[in-house]
Design brief:
72% of the residues lie in helices and 0% in strands. The chain is an all-alpha fold.
């Protein structure tokens, strides 16, 4: 097994931002669907959610993370947050400073 370098705090910060935006935008979309179903919210937040989902995946694949951590980002809604948690846990366990 090859060693994986420790991701930088800045890289994990970007992963965190993209993950939170992805999850929050999905929550807004679901709440909108369950309540008023306003087309403006859907047409605005749909592309935001899609971009954030793809950005989460892209950032994870650009960081020096394990394959399993990268693949976690493919899980819709919470995958980015799970990958961020795993990356921070492994960074702290590897002797690095937690983000």
């Amino acid at each position: 097994m090859t060693a994986v370098a420790t991701p930088t705090t800045s890289g994990l910060r970007w992963l965190g931002v993209a993950s939170v935006v992805e999850t929050a935008s999905l929550v807004v979309l679901v709440v909108n669907l369950a309540t008023v179903h306003h087309p403006l919210v859907t047409s605005t937040m749909g592309p935001v959610h899609g971009f954030a989902y793809l950005a989460t995946i892209a950032v994870a694949f650009l960081l020096p993370l394990t394959t399993g951590t990268r693949l976690l980002t493919l899980v819709p809604a919470v995958g980015g947050l799970l990958a961020l948690h795993r990356a921070r846990t492994r960074t702290a366990g590897a002797g690095g400073t937690p983000a």
